[in-house]
Amino acid sequence: MNLRGGWRHCLRGLDYVRCLEFPLVYKHASFQDGLRLLDFGSGQSVFSLVVASTWNVTIAVVDQGDWVSWQQRMAQRLRKKGLLRALSFHAFRSDGRHLAFRDGSFDRITAISAIEHIPDNGDVATVRELSRILAPNGRLVITVPYNSRSYRDCYIEQDSYSEKYKGTPVFFQRHYDEEALMSRLVKPSGLKLIESRIFGEPGYQFFNRFYANPKIPVPIKLFYTWLAPVFAKWFLRVYAGNEVRPKPNLPVVTAEGALLVLTK
Predict the structure, then answer these.
(1) pTM of the predicted model, to two decimals?
(2) Residues with Cβ within 8 Å of residue 240, at least 6 apart in sequence
(3) How many domains does the chain have?
């Protein structure tokens, strides 16, 4: 799919963490022909496009940034090549706190590393909106950054998804812990939590030492970032229960995450 997206996507490869997140979300979403899918915070992710080329489903992708239009262009390209199985594919630019969809519009909703970037109580408001537009017996699958017993709001000194940097650190994302997952996502949704998983790097910290290390120039990273699926297989996995523990001084950008599967 990255090859079809152009040379930039081909060079960038598949993001290291997504090598685990995408299969986890795909598995727990339990796709079937005829379902209605919303992929929230899709940006230029290939996830919904892979679903669109695999299942006869109705797909909507939503993001607050204009880059979501890339999704529509890619879907049109797949359709012209006869590779799009989705019954329809539409991209929308929208704030997750105010979605213009009717109640119960979707059978499956995915939010892959997206909700954590909405400032203030935006994650709470967004999960309520996603719950509203989820159909009865539908599934909402969420992934967010995670650090056991170590919730924090993370700020950066550069532009973020929602705000321009003007000399004052701007909000970038949250690291959730056990209490925050329940109080900010599960309980406000009013949905039933049917499964949760914690994932990350239990051993060698490849992600922050090599993949996301800002001290390594991008031209050098290009020699090995395209091998992300190989490195992810070596170092990244779902934790066993007794492996989950706090990680002091966890960097803002992290491979540690939580997956929540909720149903209505």
Answers:
(1) 0.94
(2) none
(3) 1
